[in-house]
Records
---
Amino acid sequence: MSERPWWQHAVIYEIYPRSFQDTNGDGVGDLSGILERVDYLAWLGVDAVWICPFYPSPMADFGYDVADYVGIDPLFGTLDDFDRLAEALHRRGIRIILDFVPNHTSDKHPWFAEARSSRDSPKRDWYIWRDAHPGGGAPNNWQSFPVGSAWEFDEATGQYYCHSFLATQPDLNWRNQSVRAAMYDVLRFWLDRGVDGFRVDVLWHLIKDAQFRDDPPNPHFRDKDPPHLRLLPLHSADQPEVLPIIAEMRQVLNGYPGERLLIGEIYLPLERLVAYYGPNLTGAHLPFNFNLMWVDWRPAPILRLIRDYEAALPLGAWPSWVLGNHDQRRVASRLGPAQDRVAMMLLMTLRGTPTLYYGDELGLKDVPIQQHEMRDPFGLVVPGQGRDPERTSMPWDESQNGGFTTGRPWLPLGKDHPAISVDVQKRDPGSMLNLTRALLALRRREPSLSLGDWEPLAVEGDALAYTRTAGGRRFIIVLNLDTAPKAVGFDRDLAGAIELSTHPGRVGERISTRIELRGDEGVIIKPT
Ligand code: GLC
Ligand code: CA
């Protein structure tokens, strides 16, 4: 195990810092709050934390609009708080991964202020400026996320600037060498402070078509789809010239000891996603693979997804699996609380590096947010696109605000928060939290579960079954994705025993040629 880089056998835990732990009663989580919970992270058994942006920001997109890449927003604390947190994590053997947001800055970033001050500004070309279309209006038809033209007119200088997201998030011009140099200095600033890696925000967006051609219409668009799907982003994203830039980022990281990790946030189909490993693996170590979040939750489609992904991976590339993040509905809400446990067992027994979203270890669900409590700008402009429900605070205990804050939480907690809180679940041996912890512990003990080969296992009965094998040790995983009980038959005598089940009371049970699975039950079997 020690010959493999740490991030191949690691479990990554995503923290949305606004919602993890507040320490000063303002209702918003902070870095000192994460520090207070470091013991919990060690108890849970995660290997690395990725913390969403905490840099100075007007918070138009809650930190994904950065006004200073090398500071800490006072809302979250100070650089000293950051150093204390990094030190405390490292002392417990937990790595720290930052969120790097290179595609766009805040419109309040001094670079943009300077760029928009005049057409002759030395920083003008740090952003993407175009004249109006000859026929008037925006330079081309590119769309922003969540809605509207990707071009905003700047009255003072009479040109449009490009923004892939909100108009308050102008896109940097990554074709400009000074932008690259400045951003690589940002990486060095944090690497020098000891960070172990970066999750790079919207990595596939950095480079746009040099000729600014219109995007073609999406022939599959249906009226009920979100507006940004109207066009195919053929020219506005995923350009080949992004790969050398990622290789340059890797070069910066490679200059530091200890395998600093580069993760890419990339929402693309499998065959395009794997291009981000780069030629000869010079790209991202881990392009995030989000496909488990939309796969049809039945054995056959999931098996097909795993096989297609494994087959698409370039030689030597390491897989990534994700079940949830701060932009998507919570897995417990998508699949329900019973199947959620099976999903966790799947995530922790697949080949590759799993990323776990804070609260998913509790089975935290989306919290319904009333219109007047909505905070996410995406939800305010496009109804239904709001990401507040999956960003609510961590319920630590049974007290009124779940121990998250002594003030008023920035988003309400769910009504069920006492019952699913960390304190309550810690005391219940059959809880989702203790199941997650047991899965993490088993995965850490058994390299076959993290590093081992993955192979599908043909079974009788509609279950998802596969094996994980390394160094002569092998585990068999059998998952019932259905609420109805299932009898699953094997074509030979497994001669094994249940090592772990999503349901209490089965550990040690002998298995030979068949197993009766309860509804929503998953088991890990160890040959004996
Ligand atoms: C990424 C982030 C998301 C943010 C967007 C724009 O997708 O995960 O939260 O709104 O980038 O920065
Ligand atoms: Ca606070």
---
Amino acid sequence: MSDSITILGLESSCDDTAAAVVRHSAENGTEILSSEVFEQYDLHADFGGVVPEIAARAHAERLDICVENALDKAGLKLAEVDAISVTSGPGLIGGVLSGVMCAKGLSVGAGKPLISVNHLAGHALTPRMTDGIAFPYLMLLISGGHCQFLIVHSADEYTRLGGTIDDSPGEAFDKTAKLLGLGYPGGPLVQEKAAQGDVKRFKFPRPLLDRAGCDMSFSGLKTALRRARDQIVEEKGGLTVTDQADLCAGFQDAVAAVLTEKTRRACLAFMEQTDTKTPVLAVAGGVAANIQIRAALQDLCAEQGFSFLAPPLKYCTDNAAMIAWVGVEKYRAGAFSDISLNARPRWPLDQSAAPMLGSGKKGAKA
Ligand code: KG4
Ligand code: ZN
């Protein structure tokens, strides 16, 4: 008998409406049959960040068509999937609710089991979907809504080694871009400017490097950047293209330095807490696309004897294939939900870790 499982996944916890179909079998491994993402950048660009109410409304309007597209591209009817998995937290509650309501409707309508997925588990388990890696491994999640180090022991067991105590690095990139008038989302624009800048002109702080452990802070960096900007404006009446580039280079260098040093500590903690002979560091989140950060992490891994794994960017950033994949893992474990499933704005993966104050203001409260 075939052990093939086909899952329809839904994601709407931040500013991307997404639906995907993923199939897994012993014979063919993992097949991502479709992965549809409707971005909302245009809706939030004027605000320089995600507006929760606008996001929730857009999800509600787009989810059904997104699901239809995902099924069409997979060449399947809803009746042909085995279950529906949906992000039920953490995230912006209006958006999460839109997804949960849609998934419940599909589940009841088609008579298919419902699977509740933690958005962070989606990111954390992506390397298993894309590269089939074995547990345990070290995960660094760096995006607009999340920033944390996790030891991934199994699909439902995680140790959180540390994370941001205020802004995520993605928020810091976005705010930097806003302060310098570059546009949104800020990451790629700051990176582009930084490539032309003089990294030595501004020496920005490296927050929390003096504190033991893997916690990070990025909000002070933003304040330092604002001060440097204001000083130039006061002296010269405005910023030149060179000023912008130098500020971006200094900022990006500081983020890369903090992430690298904290990752070094996470690697050591991982080796202490597991008995792995072939350690892997996997990254996820939009900030993992940053060329300087990626190169620094790659060098660090080489030095620490870790393999470095960065899944393709479309599966690193928010998508529904990762939610469908967690659906596969939970389906095999028999972990189903029912119609009473609730959306959870906060839902840490490691329930035993102390909550992080104010972490991930843009989306994930975990
Ligand atoms: O993972 P993601 O697409 O969405 C969530 O936040 O969940 O990450 C988006 C974030 C944004 O803050 C964006 O500015 C940042 O990732 N980003 C980057 C780069 N590309 C995207 N940050 C730095 N460098 C980049 N190349
Ligand atoms: Zn995410």
---
Amino acid sequence: MEVRPKRLNEMWLFEEQTHNMKLGLRITQVLRNIKTQYQDLLVVDTPEYGKVMVLDGAIQVTERDEFCYHEMMAHLALCSHPNPERVLIVGGGDGGTLREVLRHDSVKEAFLVDIDQEVIRAARDFFPTLSCAMDDPRARVLPMDALKFIEDNRESFDVVIVDSTDPVEFAAGLFEAPFYANVHRSLKEDGFIVCQTESPFSDPHVVAGAIQDLRKVFPVVKLAVGFMPTYPTGFWTYGIGTKGLDPAEVRRPAPEGTRYYSHEIHRAAFVLPPFLKSMIG
Ligand code: SAM
């Protein structure tokens, strides 16, 4: 990541999305720029996408397009599970996925477990439209390593949503079979896991690897696709595993007022182009 003047009075954020490709956004203000215990955290304001949170050089959320991602992360599982009551969000410290999860009246308790307290703090300070659900009485916000949290859990969740950073350092284990096995054990009989599985253009090995590892643990595994403009290439994937139910089937109403998700989008998201079918085998 670079924050550097381009012309006089102009600052730009460049995210290196692959070694050969960058996304550039003009910045009007740097709101926070710190090194946390775990990662570099930057919050900037931009004319194109509003406020943007960046971790270790990778864009995590922008005010303008976050709904495309958070609605898919939450509603693909919560509209397919017959009665989601207890939900765990792994990562997701910006609060966007939690906000969408708590739009479902069936949900009695939602845990958000993010390793980095500073991400949660930045979300509260600068992204009120994302962090707004953190004070909901059904929300439990825990700053801790989700790998540890899940190790001690047994059959207590209906849905686990893995809203993590890219698979490096302390997040790498969140994309691997031992973690998926712990999630499997933490899920009730009709349980679902949803994982953000990156882009088939910038990170084909992550998409294929995550699906292979999910298949080692879950009897039903499907991949869904969606648009996410500021994530690498804009073409995003969501890996979903269940203990038996078909995640492509819609079983519950969508919350009112969604801007990306709908039942039509749900069904269409599981229709994969042939190149992606062969990528995941
Ligand atoms: N989906 C977004 C993306 O792809 O850019 C990620 C948004 S969310 C801010 C990612 C969060 O995962 C970060 O706040 C990071 O601290 C958290 N995270 C990474 N590894 C973790 C772990 N082992 N336990 C809990 N949270 C973790």
